Hints:
The protein is built from 6 helices and 13 strands. By secondary structure, it is α+β, with helices and mostly antiparallel strands.
Amino acid sequence: MKLDQNTIARLAEHLENAELQARDVTMITGEHPDMDWDDAYAIQDEIRRRKESRGHKTAGLKAGLTSFAKMKQMGVTTPVFGFVSDYMAVPDGGEIKTSELIHPKVEAEICIVTKAALKGPGCHMAAVLAATDFVVPAVEIIDSRYRDFKFDLKSVIADNTSASRFVIGGRMRDLADLDLRTLGVVLEKNGEVMTMAAGAAVLGQPLAAVVMLANHLGARGQEIPAGTFIMTGGVTEAIPVKAGDNIAVRFQDLGTVSMRFV
Ligand code: 0L1
Ligand code: MG
């Protein structure tokens, strides 16, 4: 690690305040060009610790930048990992206040909930298949705290991978009844189709993101506990939204997830 504890704490407070006050900031690697990957995740961990110390529960884990469309959109080649907090959850069909956000975008996510712990290194697809309790669809609302989306991967990791809101909807289904690779997703804004894709857009198979997450955490001495909600990453590119927009995402076999931006 290149940053000391005081700097990590200061950057976590800076980025969390930007999130909570819906205020954009410049990317932190501008000021700290030497920071490394461990520093970036340490800042994210400190943001999580701050939220939990105020009584917010961590509601789930997320993989980001896992689809070819998102990697292309962001000009990167590596997935990133983050978390979502309880206050970020919005009910299906609910309202999302744009005044609480900076420049939100929506993306469709195939998600699972685990029924057994997953621990890397060495976690593999069979372990994830065995540990999956059910599959459920969601929409993630990402809202990078960085001005004009000007950031690099380390800055994004420190900013908790732009996590902002999420909506779980549709219906839960058994993994054995689905083919996640061919599962189609259609994202509509104000009744117009914006983008569509199949699950294989996420690393060839969305559960590969869970394998990577377990191994990422395992390398840091952590595991995915049983009962964890995991978002495997946007299937399509992210679509910008503003007040007045209605979003409906139709997932084959999993139903529809919708929300309104006000
Ligand atoms: O969930 C994600 O794919 C993370 C995206 C981070 C970069 C962005 O804000 O688009
Ligand atoms: Mg996402």
